[in-house]
């Protein structure tokens, strides 16, 4: 069984011999990129609404989504992702691939902030607290990027295990813990109560809806999905469009307000680090023997950056960390990059490595 957010019929590019018959690419050569699949991602309604929101912000429109609405939408999206993942995980069985993907995800989330620290620690324009907040954001993951990645995989007919929703949930917290260790109290007006921060992360709304939805889906299975099919199926796309419209507004306004705080070093980092992180994830997935779909989604997760969970944690742990840097970099630079090119790039790289 396979549950998907949306399905498009995409004509894949093929190689033709002089006789008109299709033939595989020569060994050792790169396959021709599937441009139709990349175009399908960029022209999907959800992605286009992100750019509608960005355009509205740049034109200084008064368009705004009430905060209670966006909070409700974000909780709904997390619940739907978790629930669908739980249903698929029950159908597939929580097998060794899940344990392998989970172990790789947790390890990357815990260790990638160290690489961010080494990358940025020489910057004279960034204080320690802000660097650690950036490290936490780029070690953690983005739920909406994951949803866009799943949609892209469905578009090109690439299957991934439903348990990847659980891997998503597992990858949120370790990066925040590493960031707190690196921080060592910097950026706080008083000693940080790590228990309070952990509670904010582990039992926060995002984690509870993801893990709770996954548990409900795993317990209720296909029978539960049939009861909620309309709610977590077709309606998901509409909610995602609305949520991405709001993110487009926030990202563009954040970029306009925080552009002066973003040094060239941060901009280059926000564009290159996701590619480096995704490449490491693909290498580990290949060595561990994961399937191409799981590897592609793992790379999408590794290449994403948190703009929900990490800011919430940093608000408690490091109020002096500058959100004009770490939130703007993750939401206004890395997130649009992944929508425009990153997701398609990571997926194409996975298909090439696993061919």
What characteristics describe this protein?
355 residues; mainly alpha; Na+/H+ antiporter like fold
Write the topology of this structure.
Blueprint: H1 35-42, H2 45-58, H3 67-92, H4 96-120, H5 128-139, H6 143-155, H7 164-170, H8 173-183, H9 194-202, H10 205-232, H11 234-258, H12 264-288, H13 292-302, H14 309-317, H15 323-353
> Which residues form runs of ≥5 with pLDDT under 50?
1-33
Mean pLDDT across every amino acid position: 81
What is the CATH class name? Mainly Alpha
CA distance, first residue to last residue: 24 Å
What is the CATH-assigned architecture?
Answer: Up-down Bundle
Structural class: mainly alpha
Number of domains: 1
SSE topology string: HHHHHHHHHHHHHHH
What fold name stands as the CATH topology? Answer: Na+/H+ antiporter like fold
If you compute it from the alpha carbons, what radius of gyration comes out, rounded to the nearest whole angstrom? 20 Å
Structure description:
The protein is an all-alpha fold. It has a single domain (45-353), classed as Na+/H+ antiporter like fold (Up-down Bundle). It is built from 15 helices and no strands. It has helices at residues 35-42, 45-58, 67-92, 96-120, 128-139, 143-155, 164-170, 173-183, 194-202, 205-232, 234-258, 264-288, 292-302, 309-317, 323-353. α2 packs parallel to α11 and α6 (143-155) packs antiparallel against α13. It is globular. The model is unreliable at 1-33 (pLDDT under 50).
């Amino acid at each position: 069984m396979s549950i998907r957010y949306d399905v498009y019929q995409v004509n894949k590019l093929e190689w033709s011999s002089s006789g008109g018959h299709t033939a595989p690419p020569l060994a050792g050569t790169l396959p021709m990129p599937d441009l139709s699949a990349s175009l399908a991602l960029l022209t999907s309604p959800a992605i286009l609404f992100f750019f509608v929101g960005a355009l509205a912000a740049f034109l200084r429109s008064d368009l705004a989504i009430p905060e209670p609405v966006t909070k409700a939408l974000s909780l709904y999206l997390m619940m739907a992702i978790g629930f669908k993942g739980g249903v698929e995980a029950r159908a597939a069985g929580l097998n060794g691939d899940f344990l392998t993907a989970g172990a790789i995800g947790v390890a990357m989330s815990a260790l990638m902030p160290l690489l961010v620290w080494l990358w940025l620690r020489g910057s004279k324009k960034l204080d320690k607290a802000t660097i650690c907040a950036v490290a936490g954001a780029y070690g953690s993951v983005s739920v909406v990027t994951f949803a866009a990645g799943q949609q892209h995989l469905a578009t090109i007919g690439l299957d991934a295990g439903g348990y990847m929703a659980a891997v998503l949930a597992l990858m949120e917290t370790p990066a925040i813990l590493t960031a707190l260790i690196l921080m060592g109290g910097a950026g706080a007006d008083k000693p940080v109560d790590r228990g309070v921060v952990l509670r904010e992360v582990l039992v926060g709304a995002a984690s509870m809806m993801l893990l709770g939805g996954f548990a409900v889906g795993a317990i209720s299975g296909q029978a539960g999905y049939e009861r909620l099919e309309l709610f977590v199926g077709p309606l998901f796309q509409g909610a995602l469009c609305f949520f991405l419209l709001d993110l487009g507004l926030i990202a563009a306004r954040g970029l306009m307000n925080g552009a002066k705080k973003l040094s060239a070093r941060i901009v280059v980092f926000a564009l290159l680090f996701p590619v480096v992180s995704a490449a490491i994830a693909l290498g580990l997935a290949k060595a561990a023997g994961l399937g191409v779909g799981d590897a592609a989604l793992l790379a999408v997760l590794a290449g994403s950056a948190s703009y929900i969970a990490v800011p919430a944690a940093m608000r408690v742990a490091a109020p002096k960390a500058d959100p004009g840097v770490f939130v703007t970099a993750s939401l206004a630079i890395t997130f649009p990059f992944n929508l425009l090119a990153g997701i398609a790039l990571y997926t194409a790289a996975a298909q090439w490595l696993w061919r």
